[in-house]
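Technical annex, item 7. During the second reporting period the consortium partners agreed on a shared format for inverse folding records so that results from different sites could be compared directly. Each record opens with the tokenized structure and is followed by the designed sequence. A conforming record, contributed by the partner at site C, is shown below for reference.
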């Protein structure tokens, strides 16, 4: 994954590099580093741990220089320590890299045969060694082109040269890279978000592009080494703030923001006067669609799984759901009358992007459900449906999940109405029920105190299970994912009806089991499965909306959530699960916004 930054300026750059790295920490936070050209030498500072630590090092010993590169790391090759942190420098060149060099072992072995020793365990250092060799005979631009020709895998690179203190070179294949423009200063960054506090004028490199960035100009070259021009985009203003306000951390702020983000999203898509859902730019006429394929990773994949139930309920279209990392390698039969929908908060997830790219090359119609509208996935799909959730900073996705589900819900309703799969009266009723959602979510958030007690009760457990049927099954998967990523407590999500086929063996005295049982058509059946768990000693937390009545004396905890249209329960039942994982993690003193081993944007395979 990792985040990279490069700045060429007429003033010192290290403070701006550090500030941009703080913004990029969502891409990786296990080590940080920068290099500038100071008094004609490459001056590298790096450490394991967060950017804050790097900042302290720089406070003790500041880096001068008007040109530099910086990096935050999410380790792929080699443990996160100071030696493996980027930049990787030789006497004459310094490199930061996001991506994976798949032939690094082979290249390393060849160099080792001729006596080169490598300092780090990283794949990146081979780029430094290759460049150092090439620079003996070639100018920097040619050396970069020849080097990247030898690399297999993915990369976004920022490179500075001891003997050329006037420019940074950037190169991209597979991993995203943006360029920003300002007066007497130009920038290179893994994304526009990192550059936003410095400029709103941005261009994006395409695969194979190389750029040479000096303080006064940026030159671009394509993979054929031809000089090219790039479109300059003006970034939109962020309406939502990216500060924690009075909250302890971003995650809890983002959980409590959900009534507002849902309201904003509804406003964007529902025409108030005509009570109509607006989707103007779908790449296929809904009447012509014969299949919808929903693709995503992690939490985004769970939103696709929930949406499958809605599309099947409301429309007559065949629905498939796929995990992006599987889809991209399967022998898929592409269908010109199918709509391929890619769901991603960041819009930069490598697997999702690769799956989209595959569809693009097959010339089938694509659509993306995205939070970051300037992202690679948004820019490369035929149609973009933003979720309007505002920046999501916590690594654990919360408000984006609700936003993704909401846009998919609206889309399923709209497609159903256009195809006459749903009667207009029912369609209008669903829209009016949807408008209650912000209030229903606020009601569900009121359960926080009770959930704190439950979290205290289960935080020392060695495992847990989450069960549901119908659309509550993917919500169980999402609840389990949230708990494991935040609190490192093992959690399994399962369809309640599958328990008897194996997982029931896991139930033992005191094992926490969260049962998600809204009063839908599955209710009785889910309760029977719950009783089977109770009979084997499971400690049940029941989430239902049974008007406050205790359903069984053997339930350890019960939370009654507000009633709603039954197709809306996934939104409401997600809230206590988010709060539960948050409070368990808080009791366990885990790093809430930056769980171990993870990153917000997953830009490696
Ligand atoms: O940015 P994306 O939505 O494409 O990210 C996909 C997953 O990496 C992401 O949802 C991940 O599972 C979250 N950390 C879960 O909270």
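Designed sequence (site C submission):
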């Amino acid at each position: 994954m990792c985040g990279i930054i490069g700045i060429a300026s007429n003033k010192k750059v290290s403070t701006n590099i550090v500030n941009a790295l703080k913004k990029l920490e969502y891409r990786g936070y296990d080590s940080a580093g920068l290099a500038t050209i100071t008094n004609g030498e490459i001056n590298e500072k790096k450490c394991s741990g967060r950017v804050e630590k790097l900042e302290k090092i720089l406070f003790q010993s500041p880096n001068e220089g008007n040109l530099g590169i910086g990096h935050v790391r999410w380790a792929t090759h080699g443990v996160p320590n100071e030696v493996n942190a980027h930049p990787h420098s030789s006497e004459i060149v310094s490199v930061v890299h996001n991506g994976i060099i798949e032939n690094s072992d082979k290249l390393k072995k060849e160099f080792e045969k001729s006596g080169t020793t490598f300092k780090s365990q990283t794949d990146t250092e081979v780029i430094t060694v290759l460049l150092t060799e090439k620079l003996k005979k070639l100018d920097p631009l040619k050396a970069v082109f020849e080097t990247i020709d030898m690399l297999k895998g993915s990369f976004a690179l920022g490179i500075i040269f001891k003997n050329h203190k006037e420019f940074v070179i950037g190169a991209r294949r597979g991993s995203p890279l943006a360029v920003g423009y300002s007066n007497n200063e130009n920038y290179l960054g893994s994304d526009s978000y990192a550059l936003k506090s410095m400029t709103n004028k941005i261009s994006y490199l395409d695969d194979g592009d190389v750029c040479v960035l000096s303080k006064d100009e940026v030159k671009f070259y394509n993979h054929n080494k031809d000089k090219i021009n790039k479109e300059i985009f003006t970034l939109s203003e962020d309406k939502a703030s990216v500060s924690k306000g009075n909250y302890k951390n971003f995650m809890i702020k983002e959980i409590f923001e959900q009534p507002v983000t849902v309201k904003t999203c509804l406003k964007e898509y529902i025409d108030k006067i005509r009570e109509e859902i607006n989707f103007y730019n779908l790449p296929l006429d809904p009447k012509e669609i014969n299949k919808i394929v929903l693709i995503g990773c992690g939490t985004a994949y769970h939103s696709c799984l929930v949406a499958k139930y809605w599309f099947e309920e409301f429309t007559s279209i065949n629905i498939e759901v796929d995990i992006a990392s599987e889809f991209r390698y399967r022998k898929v039969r592409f269908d010109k009358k199918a709509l391929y929908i890619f769901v991603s908060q960041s819009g930069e997830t490598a697997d999702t992007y690769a799956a989209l790219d595959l569809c693009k090359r097959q010339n089938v119609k694509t659509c993306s459900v995205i939070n970051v509208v300037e992202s690679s996935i948004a820019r490369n799909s035929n149609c973009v449906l933003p979720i309007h959730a505002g920046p999501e900073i916590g690594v654990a996705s919360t408000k984006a999940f609700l936003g993704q589900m909401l846009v998919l819900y609206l889309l399923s309703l709209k497609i159903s109405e256009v195809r006459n799969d749903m009667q207009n009266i029912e369609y209008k009723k669903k829209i009016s029920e949807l408008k209650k959602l912000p209030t229903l979510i606020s009601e569900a958030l009121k359960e926080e105190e009770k959930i704190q007690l439950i979290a205290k009760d289960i935080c020392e457990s060695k495992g847990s299970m989450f069960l549901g049927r119908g659309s509550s099954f993917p919500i169980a998967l999402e609840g389990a994912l949230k708990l494991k990523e935040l609190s490192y407590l093992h959690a399994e999500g399962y369809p309640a009806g599958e328990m008897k086929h194996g997982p029931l063996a896991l139930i033992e005295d005191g094992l926490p089991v969260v049962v998600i049982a809204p009063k839908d058509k599955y209710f009785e059946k889910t309760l029977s499965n719950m009783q089977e768990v109770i009979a084997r000693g499971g400690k049940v937390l029941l989430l239902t909306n049974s008007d406050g009545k205790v359903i069984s004396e053997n339930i350890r905890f019960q939370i009654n959530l507000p009633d709603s249209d039954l197709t809306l329960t996934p939104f409401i039942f997600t809230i206590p699960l988010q709060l539960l994982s948050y409070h368990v993690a808080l009791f366990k003193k885990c790093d809430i916004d930056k769980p171990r081993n993870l990153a917000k944007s997953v830009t490696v395979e």
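The CA atoms of residues 65 and 473 lie 55 Å apart. The pocket of 5-amino-5-deoxy-1-O-phosphono-D-mannitol is lined by residues 297-300, 344-346, 349, 352, 395-397, 481, 485, 601-602 (CB under 6 Å). All partners now use this format for quarterly exchanges.
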